[in-house]
Specification:
The protein has helices at residues 61-69, 91-97, 118-128, 134-147, 164-176, 194-211, 222-228, 246-251, 256-263, 270-275, and strands at 17-30, 33-46, 50-54, 76-81, 84-85, 101-104, 182-186, 214-218, 231-236, 239-245, 316-319, 322-324. By secondary structure, it is an alpha/beta fold. It folds into two domains: 17-100 and 180-329, P-loop containing nucleotide triphosphate hydrolases (Rossmann fold), CATH 3.40.50; 117-177, no CATH class. An eight-stranded mixed beta sheet has the order 6-7-8-3-9-10-12-11, sandwiched between helices. A four-stranded antiparallel beta sheet has the order 2-1-4-5. Helix 3 packs across helix 4 (134-147), helix 3 (118-128) runs parallel beside helix 5 (164-176) and helix 5 (164-176) runs parallel beside helix 6. The longest helix has 18 residues, at 194-211. It is globular, with a radius of gyration of 21 Å. The relative contact order is 0.14. Residues 1-14 have low confidence and may be disordered.
């Protein structure tokens, strides 16, 4: 008998908070200095929603995701999952929490053990948590393969026998094996062909609706983030500079960095594309070892003011549900 998965309808999609991040910091030692990879993040993720994380390479998106999951121990701050601080859990409690929180990794070519069969890769979480054995284990793995659109009969094949998109589906199946509530998707489509990216994103949305999942979706592709996310957070140099609903952020970005990012999204209309103004930022991203004083973005900001170099902007709610950190809105 095949194992059936719970079918959760999201009738109260944003009714309560599942994850709350307070003052999260992650610094890495670098000689006599430190790399401030994540520097004071504050946000919540509601049950059943997708929060998108966007920003340039090196801004701290992936580090934030791994610190929330506690693959990295936080330097400072709290990560509350259903009210419990993940950063304070014992080793035993942390292992138990892994059934609730899972991760889909960026590179499907590196995240799957080439010496293990697909069945063993997907079955490993079941073994670790003692969830299924023998014939039930096999049935569960085959049901997971079917759930992500793969042939259940390929249970004994190895990763090299699959394409990149199929490998990422295997990674998704592995994450779903323990029926988690919260999944951190760490750039799950960046290593895939463009033609496959939409398929994987649509699969994630389908699984969310079917199983009541909550996602933190980290990505570079702004148009894809808009497609999947309910709310979007913009990061720059370890800090969050803007957070709003997907609709509001893309229609009316408040922070100059968000404006520049969104101006880079191509529009599928040649006439509109010709007429619109592209915001090209000058200079390079400063080093997270020695960030600028005041506002970290001031060295590249087209709207910089005198106060920007002296005072760090406050993270505040400018409009209902729309947060930003910029002196323009003081």
């Amino acid at each position: 008998m095949a194992v059936k998965f719970k079918d959760v309808k999201q009738t109260q999609k944003h009714s309560d908070v599942l994850v709350e991040v307070k003052g999260l910091k992650k610094f890495f030692p670098a000689g006599e200095s430190v790399v401030k990879a994540v520097n004071d993040l504050n946000f919540v993720i509601h049950r059943g929603e997708t929060l998108g994380f966007v920003g340039e390479s090196g801004c701290g998106k992936s580090t934030a995701g791994r610190t929330i999951l506690r693959l990295y121990d936080a330097t400072e701050g709290e990560v509350l999952f259903e009210g419990r601080d993940i950063q304070k859990l014992s080793a035993r409690e942390l292992k138990e929490s892994r059934k609730e929180i899972q991760m889909i990794f960026q590179d499907p070519y590196a995240s799957l053990n080439p010496r293990m069969t697909v069945g063993d890769i997907i079955g490993e979480p079941l073994d670790i948590h003692g969830l299924a054995k023998g014939e039930k284990r096999k049935e569960r793995i085959q049901e997971l393969l079917k759930l992500v659109g793969l042939n259940p009969e390929h249970i004994n094949r190895f990763p090299h026998e699959f394409s990149g998109g199929q490998r990422q589906r295997i990674g998704i199946a592995r994450a779903l094996a323990v029926e988690p509530k919260f999944i951190i998707c760490d750039e799950p489509i960046s290593a895939l062909d463009v033609s496959i990216q939409a398929q994987v994103v649509n699969l994630l949305k389908e699984l969310q609706n079917k199983m009541g999942l909550t996602y933190l979706f980290i990505a570079h592709d702004l148009s894809m983030v808009k497609h999947i996310s309910d709310r979007v957070a913009v990061m720059y140099l370890g800090k969050m500079v803007e957070l709003a609903s997907s609709e509001n952020l893309y229609a009316e970005p408040l922070h100059p960095y968000s404006e520049a990012l969104l101006s880079a999204i191509p529009i599928p209309d040649p006439e509109l594309e010709k007429s619109r103004e592209r915001i090209v930022l000058q200079g390079d991203v400063p080093s997270p070892m020695n960030p600028p004083s005041g506002c970290h973005f001031r060295t590249r900001c087209p709207k910089v003011m005198d106060i920007c170099s002296k005072v760090e902007p406050e993270w505040k709610e400018v409009k209902p549900g729309h947060f930003t950190a910029c002196h323009i809105y003081y």
